[in-house]
Amino acid sequence: MPNPLGHLLEVLRLEQVDDGDGSAADPEHFRGASVHQPSGRVYGGQVLAQAVLAAGRTVPAGRLPHSLHGYFLRPGALEVPIDFAVERLRDGRSFSARRTHAIQHGKPILSMIASFQEAQDGFEHTSAMPSAPPPQDVPSALEVLGGIDHPVARFWSHHSAFELRHVGGSLYLTPDAEPKDHQMVWMRARGHVGDDQLLHRALMAYACDQVMLEPILRQSGTSWVTPGISIASLDHAMWWHRDVRVDEWLLFVQSASSAQGGRGLGAARVFTQDGSLVASIAQEGMVRLPDA
């Protein structure tokens, strides 16, 4: 794939199937395809991004998503188109709420509610960004995996639309030598995205699903290739605080507060290089270890 970002942007161009009236009985429908994945299943971040874009197509001009809450309900099939049914829950003076179901074979694979807001003035505060080495001083996935002749390694290093740089080392091939419940990752799209802020926010939802559960793996002494490990996203919550550009470096400051019962909770704060907090994210996932 010579241009993975370009391919992803094409996949995110949803087709409107019908306009409906936005009610639960007659939602507005959009349709999209999927990006190939080595797992053979639809990548959850892709469906999340498409659901954000579908909902955003139905809100008044000037309103951008500030939060979403979604549940991943079923695995998605790569070869089957995904239908997105959008319900207009509310349009107030400055906020709009939408519910979106992503559907295959007549059953939802994702259910999401998102809230949108017009730009408004208000009290300003942001937490400070922790100290981190600049992205140019951190090895990229291409540097770590580029010489490995394995389809998954090639996908992570060459076919991903985003460049990832793990501070302190990645979990692609081996566990952390010093298990811990936190990590920092620099991330940036592999090319220019344009100026559509709805698209940038949707792409952030796409990208973050790659790393949200990694602090759980790091703490448990496992990696993505640990034999017998089973991982799946269960739910996802996200808050956008400020405008963001995913084609500029973003620092994901991550933690895992708990793991139990085959589940774990990951959290992230996302900063720009100049230290502005642009988003907060939480995700619970199924993480079943080989001896569990």
From TrEMBL:
Domain of life: Bacteria
Keywords: Hydrolase, Lipid metabolism
Molecular function in Gene Ontology: fatty acyl-CoA hydrolase activity
Entry keyword Membrane: no
Keyword presence, Lipid metabolism: yes
InterPro entries linked: Acyl-CoA_hotdog, Acyl_CoA_thio, HotDog_dom_sf, TesB_ACOT8-like_N, TesB_C
Subunit text: Homotetramer.
Protein name, per record: Acyl-CoA thioesterase 2
